[in-house]
Amino acid sequence: MQGVERSIVTIDLGAIRRNAETLRHVAGDAELWAVVKADGYGHGSREVSGAALAGGASALAVATLAEALPLRTAFPDARLLVMGPVEDVAAAREARLELVAVGVEVPEGLPVHLKLDTGMGRWGLSELPAPSRDVVGVMSHLASAEADPEFTQVQIERFREATATLAGLSRHLANSAGTLRFPEARLDAVRCGIALYGISPFGGDPAADRLEPALRWESYLALVKRLRPGESTGYGRRFVARRETWIGIVPVGYADGFRRDLTGTRVVVEGTPTLVVGTVSMDALAVELERPLPTGTAVTLVGDGVTIEDHARVAETIGYEIATGIVTAQGRARRVVRNG
Ligand SMILES: *Cc1c(COP(=O)(O)O)cnc(C)c1O
Fold first, then answer.
1. Whose CA is nearest to atom 3 of ligand 1?
2. What is the C-alpha separation between 264 and 163, in angstroms, rounded?
3. What is the pTM of this model?
4. How many other C-beta atoms are found inside a 10 Å radius of the C-beta of residue 237?
5. Rounded CA gap, 199 and 205, in Å?
6. Which of 52, 293, 321, 333 is the most buried (most CB within 10 A)?
7. What atom in ligand 1 is closest to the CA of residue 37?
8. Which of 107, 144, 141 is nearest to 37 (CA)?
9. d(CA 31, CA 127)
10. Residue 223, beta-bridge partner list
């Protein structure tokens, strides 16, 4: 690894484009809307949006006004939907955005989607008002499509019933898990985030749904040292050598998004899955090596068989949180994109 950076995140835009094509195929007659909030789930929203549109997505969706404005500049003609509440409706109108009515107040003077709460218990109305003339769509959000088929069926049924008589409005309900597993949830458009990035909404192998991970995260061994029996590495002395062993220090820590609860996960050192040992600190993590390796040896934190889902399992969280947690600001991981 050259330069000053301690780790590099590489985004394969070809993988994003192919995932979009796959999801569009799965969605059948429904349109694919690409969810690129949270900086494209940590992948870079502008680049990801371009790849998703090239792969057949017909709209972009984000959570906030601030996320939408730079995308409007980059994509003057794209349909752009803000799914969360927006205070500054004038700015949204100016930027030709589409908004969602998440409560009783319906924004005016721009295309609006009414959000019905069918069981998420978060944003959304418990009953649909008569649509005003700005209303172009009706939506809801699934609470548990990756884990609870019965409750998902209840939500789908509630939504279909509540919207059955609304002719001419676009009905959209499915997230990635809903799109992949519930054909009856696909309706007029599907809103896919996590699957677009090649991360499984089910926490398993993305290849099972023909999805390709788009993110690689690489670093290197900055230091290799021998520990004698009884010597330890890291805060709290959580790893103590029982026999003579070798420890490699990788200059990536929880401030880079390699979480403190990832002790016990594996990263790939010279092609070999290798255990992360001791406490992950702010700026460094430790791996136990079979033998002394030269400093500068490549370490793959995500990629080469280690997935974001693997790390999520160890940290007892979801892939979404691992991906959005990688820090590319202020000289932490450097993000580069390539067109694979
Ligand atoms: C984030 C979000 C999605 C995308 O969900 P994934 O599980 O990432 O596909 C869809 N709809 C709404 C309203 C969202 O907030």
1. 175
2. 48
3. 0.96
4. 11
5. 8
6. 52
7. 1
8. 141
9. 25
10. 249
Instruction: For residue range 225-279, list pLDDT tens digits in order.
Output: 999 999 999 999 999 999 999 999 999 999 999 999 999 999 999 999 999 999 9
pLDDT (tens digit per residue) in 14-71: 999 999 999 999 999 999 999 999 999 999 999 999 999 999 999 999 999 999 999 9
Q: Answer whether 60's CB lies under 8 Å from 34's CB.
A: yes
Distance 175 CA to ligand 1 centre (A): 5
37 a catalytic residue: yes
Best CA proximity match to 23, nearest among 203, 202, 194: 194
254 is catalytic: no
Q: Which of 12, 127, 45 is nearest to 328 (CA)?
A: 45
- Angle between the N-to-C axes of helices 45-54 and 13-27, in degrees from 0 to 180, rounded to the nearest 10: 50
Residue reference for tokens 């401030």: 255
CA of 45 to the centre of ligand 1 (A): 15
* Pocket flag, ligand 1, residue 115 (CB < 6 Å): no
